[in-house]
Amino acid sequence: MNETTTELRIVKRDGTAEKFSLEKIKNAIRSAFLSVGSIASEEVLTTILSRVSISNGISVEEVQNQVEVALMAEHYYGV
């Protein structure tokens, strides 16, 4: 398979699709931790992200919902 067919896409809020970026999700989680005066270590990020299931064509909202559920499952209620 070539790179184009294996590239995951995410559907943004405006309905457009773009290449999935794990780094954008990590940055959003880091920002959420910072907003409550905390820092997310790489270990914490990995643990949270291990609970998130990404599939081609997933929406930003679904990713956000999964991250919120993962944060609560890991007892980061304030984040």
Describe this structure in words.
The N terminus is likely disordered. Strand 1 and strand 2 form a beta hairpin. The longest helix has 14 residues. The radius of gyration is 13 Å and the shape is elongated. It has four helices and three strands; from the N terminus they run H-E-E-H-H-E-H.
Quick description:
The chain has 79 residues and is mostly helical.
The biggest beta sheet, please? 3 strands, mixed
> How would you classify the helix and strand content by structural class?
mainly alpha
Total helices: the number is 4
What is the approximate shape? elongated
First-to-last CA distance: 39 Å
Radius of gyration: 13 Å
Task: Tell how many strands the DSSP assignment holds.
Answer: 3
Poorly predicted runs are 1-5
- The multimeric state of the shown protein is single chain
The average pLDDT value, as a whole number, equals 93
The percentage helix is: 40-55%
Question: Within the largest sheet, what's the order of strands?
Answer: 2-1-3
Helix-strand pattern: HEEHHEH
Approximate strand percentage: 5-15%
Structural topology:
Blueprint: H1 3-6, E1 9-11, E2 17-19, H2 22-35, H3 42-49, E3 58-59, H4 60-73
Parallel strand pairs: 1-3
Antiparallel strand pairs: 1-2
